[in-house]
Design brief:
The N and C termini lie far apart (58 Å). Helix content is 62%, strand content 11%. It folds into 2 domains: 94 residues, Alpha-Beta Complex (DNA Primase, Chain A); 80 residues. By secondary structure, it is α+β, with helices and mostly antiparallel strands.
Length: 183
């Protein structure tokens, strides 16, 4: 497997949001679009407001810091954070995430990545359905306290479900909202 295949494998396999939270002690906040924001984790950039963004694009996570004016994939992040060359960053990530240079493991990892992508799309679709239902409720019942309470509870439960990767709980949130609509 060549260097570029390894980079692509790292891009599709590494759970970048979890890596940033665990390794750099950063608290990520999920926005309505499913992207994450936080204060910049780079030690040379002291944020007072979240300027660091993680977005799922092209089959993997990409980052951009509006304060630093730079971005990229997890490989570029590790290169910049640890002042490493591209090959050293790839080696560090392969070692940390047990990604092998063996072509057979590459094929298995790509299959796992496809499964991860479809599950992520299912989570995103469910969250979008919930958001759409909540917006409709707020539009149709402006100022209604019971509706506001239901929408708030739905968003809280949906975000908790996303953080815990609990798809069943997320689907149950949508069912609750639908039941509320049927009243």
């Amino acid at each position: 497997m060549n260097f570029y295949q390894l980079r692509k494998l790292i891009f599709t396999q590494v759970d970048f949001p979890a890596y940033v939270e665990q390794e750099f002690n950063v608290k990520l906040f999920r926005n309505d679009g499913g992207d994450y924001n936080c204060r910049c984790p780079f030690p040379f950039h002291k944020d007072s407001k979240p300027s660091f963004s993680l977005q799922y694009r092209d089959g993997g996570w990409k980052w951009y810091c509006y304060g630093c004016g730079t971005g990229g994939t997890v490989v570029e992040f590790v290169m910049r954070y640890f002042s490493l060359s591209p090959s050293d960053a790839v080696a560090k990530l392969c070692d940390q995430f047990e990604i092998s240079n063996d072509p057979k493991s590459y094929i298995e990892a790509m299959k796992r990545a496809e499964g991860t992508k479809s599950l992520k799309k299912e989570f995103e679709s469910e969250f979008i359905r919930i958001s759409s239902l909540c917006r409709g409720l707020l539009r149709d019942y402006p100022g209604d306290k019971e509706t506001l309470r239901e929408v708030k509870n739905a968003y809280v439960e949906a975000n908790e479900s996303l953080e815990k990767s609990d798809l069943e709980k997320l689907k149950n949130v949508r069912v609750k909202i639908n039941r509320f609509l049927e009243r």
